[in-house]
Prior knowledge:
By secondary structure, the chain is an alpha+beta fold. The protein has helices at about 5-15, 20-35, 45-65, 65-75, 80-95, 110-115, 245-250, 260-270, 280-285, 300-310, and strands at about 100-105, 120, 125-130, 135-140, 145-150, 155-165, 175, 180-185, 190-195, 200-205, 205-210, 220-225, 225-230, 235, 240, 255-260, 275-280, 290-295, 310-315, 320-325.
Amino acid sequence: MNAKQLQKEMALWIVRLNTDDLHERQQAQIEFEAWRSKYPEHHDQLDQMLNFSETMQQFSTTHGISSQNVRNSMKVSQQSKKHILQLFSKVLVFCVSIGGVVYFTAHSTMMSYYTADYKTEIGQMHSITLEDGSKVTLAAKSAIKLDFTAEKRQINLVQGDIYIDVAKDPQRPLIVHTAQADFKALGTRFIVYQYANSSVLNMLHSKVETRSLAQNSQVKVVKQGEKISADSLGLSPISELDIASTEFAWDKHQILADQLPLADLLTNLGRYHHQYLIFNHSTLKDYKVSGVINAKQDLDQTLRLLVTQYPIKITKLGDHVIYITSK
């Protein structure tokens, strides 16, 4: 069996071994052991797959892969590797995203992403001009939904990062809404980053009123050359921002990390590479990253560098799945 066929088969086995139907799961285990015995030369890779499958099973007890998905996977078992991997990714994302612990940083299947008004794909950056004349640039794998009426202008940042040059309309201040805050434009240019548990504003020109969506409902005005973050607890202190470096980094697909949680860095990297980065957000939350990272450089090279600096372990499952754990 060649490497490509092995990856295809492994993807199918992970789907079958994590079905919510106990009988089908037991039958799959019997069939897998028989199949595995035929390929002793691939035992190391198959052991990695089993370790990954065991990790997934802690979620499948309550949020399992449906038996219908398993049957669908078997129906397409003769299709191309691309189709198998697409099915594999969708099923596994569904399995764990409800549990809220493991994050897939490629090929998001969130309905809100697919129903967004504007979105970008992996590695893609795209600029648009809205009906009011405002210009918005979406970073890789980002998405927005618009809520424009005669009374208001609101951009809902579904995921990712956006750079905005706001057209003036005193009667309808433009608001960027994230999961943690509302950013009301009192000026023109700024960047908003949406992470898993926080959102960040970088103010490039004029000022923005930031209102926390936490219970304390804090409000702070962020001026040119300043930045602020918002999370479930409220707003951070306002800190200084290097405007020139920030704009350069945006244009060059660089990540300016300043005590950025490692999980958020991995999420960003996943938006630029056609590989699945799988990790437990909570186990990596205490690791902070500072520095300049080129999001488009070779992913393996970036991960090797991270391994030298943080107590993490990288496990590759074929060419398309990378499993990251804390040591």
